[in-house]
Amino acid sequence: MNPFVEATDLTQGEKIVTISSVVPSVLSLNHHLEKLKPQVRFLSSLVRSLQVSLKKRFGGIFINVKMATLTQDGTTAPFSDPVYLKAAALDPAFSLMWIDHHVLVSLEVKAEVRQHVKEVILREAVETEQPTPCVDEEEQEILGQGEGLFAAYHKKKKKKDVGTTPALQLSHYLHIADGQNVLLFWAMNMKVLPSLFKVAIRVLDVPASRAPVERVFSHGGIILRPHRAQMSDRLLTNLVFCKCNAL
């Protein structure tokens, strides 16, 4: 059961990125149980039950990676939101390596899953981009930016696009992602990968579970004891904030 303990610790952290570990953890646990099947003799039913429960609880993930089919009743499977795929792919500790190791399908299907994850990321990267208005030469002359006694002698230069497309950024990211710490990586590459950075900060700040939020309320209950009933709301808020954000 050690892999389950490790997955629980990863997804219930407070001061680390947790949502990116959901998909790799679930698929790794399923792979772990799959390997246990031929090895166990007396606990085979337990292993099968754990695997069935895992696939039922996280059905949306298995559907998105083509390890399961859509439900026939039309209901949305749990954990089917693409944010889990995007978060796993945009964490350099995982990147797309979990597809190669723990998605138990054929190589052709793996390629389709990899392409699907890329498209989901690129789609949001394009949507979050804000195009920079470009002033053409005629507008510059109208605005007086080309004025001068010998302005006509100068060669007119077209404005160069120094940025890169989201597709090129994603390709570069997949090339340099090699197990780095996710927070340090994006802090160092926010200007190199601006489009992906916008997507990363949107998806990676989502908590994987409600455990950190529940701990905040627990701290509040510990601080606001009966003998502190006269404590003001502002003071309680500040004390809880200090407690939960202490280094």
UniProtKB/TrEMBL annotation:
InterPro entries: HATC_C_dom (IPR008906), RNaseH-like_sf (IPR012337), ZnF_BED_domain_contain (IPR052035). It is found in: Nucleus. GO terms for molecular function: zinc ion binding. Residues 180-243 form the HAT C-terminal dimerisation domain. Keywords: Metal-binding, Nucleus, Zinc, Zinc-finger. It comes from the Eukaryota. Pfam families: Dimer_Tnp_hAT (PF05699). The keyword Zinc-finger applies. GO terms for cellular component: nucleus. PANTHER family: ZINC FINGER BED DOMAIN-CONTAINING PROTEIN 39, ZINC FINGER BED DOMAIN-CONTAINING PROTEIN 4. This is HAT C-terminal dimerisation domain-containing protein.
